[in-house]
Specification:
Layout lengths: L2 H6 L5 H14 L3 E7 L2 E6 L4 H10 L7 E9 L8 E9 L4 E9 L5 E2 L8 H12 L3 E2 L41
Parallel strand pairs: 2-5, 6-7
Antiparallel strand pairs: 1-2, 3-4, 4-5
Length: 178
C-alpha cells in the first residue's frame, strides 16, 4: 500500500510516528492518553506538565512544532472532577505534521501562559479566559476582548444563562480596544 493511501485511511505520517515515539520516550507515563483518528494524533497531559510538554514539542528537532495553530477552551460539565479543557493545535512546517494536546482542568484551576513559546497564544489565551474563565498565569495582558469590563460570567460555558440580564454587554465597536 502506498504512503498516500495509508495516510488517507487514517495512518499517521512517518514524521508524526517519529515525533510520537520521541514524545513517548521523553515523557512516558506523564502522557495521560493518546488518541489517533483519521491520521491525527492527540495527547492528554496534566496541567503540571503543560509547559514542559509544549516546550519540548517546539524545541525538539524531531518534533519542531514551530506554529501554534490555535488554543481554545471547552466546558464539559458532565465531567465533574475536571469540567474544563484547554486544547492546543500545533503545526510543524519543517516536517509537515500536526499535533493536538489537551489538558483537563478543575473549576478555578489555571495554566501557565505559553506566550513565551508562541507569542500568538496571547490572543487565544485572552479569549479562552474571557469565554470560559480559565486563567493563564503570567499572561502579559489578560483583559477582556469581546465583552465590556463590567460583564459578569463566561458566555461559552454550558451553564451560562440563555436569557435575562447577566451584566454588561457584548462589544460592537472594537476600534482602539484590542
Amino acid at each position: 500500500m502506498s504512503a498516500e493511501r495509508a495516510m488517507a485511511g487514517g495512518a499517521l505520517s512517518p514524521s508524526l510516528v517519529t515525533a510520537a515515539e520521541r514524545l513517548e520516550r521523553r515523557f512516558g507515563a506523564r502522557l495521560r492518553g493518546r488518541t489517533e483518528f483519521r491520521g491525527e494524533l492527540t495527547y492528554r497531559v496534566a496541567a503540571g506538565d503543560w509547559v514542559r510538554v509544549l516546550s519540548f514539542c517546539r524545541n525538539a528537532p524531531e518534533l519542531a512544532f514551530d506554529q501554534l495553530d490555535c488554543l481554545l477552551g471547552d466546558h464539559l460539565p458532565e465531567r465533574t472532577e475536571a469540567p474544563f479543557e484547554v486544547v492546543v493545535h500545533l503545526l510543524s512546517h519543517a516536517h509537515g505534521h500536526r499535533l493536538r494536546v489537551k489538558t483537563a482542568l478543575a473549576e478555578g484551576e489555571g495554566l501557565p501562559t505559553i506566550t513565551g513559546l508562541w507569542p500568538s497564544a496571547g490572543f487565544d489565551e485572552r479569549e479562552t479566559w474571557e469565554m470560559f474563565g480559565v486563567v493563564f498565569h503570567g499572561h502579559p495582558d489578560l483583559r477582556r476582548l469581546l465583552t465590556t469590563d463590567d460583564f459578569d460570567g463566561f458566555p461559552l460555558r454550558k451553564d451560562f444563562p440563555l436569557q435575562g440580564t447577566v451584566g454588561g454587554r457584548i462589544r460592537t465597536d472594537l476600534r482602539g480596544k484590542v
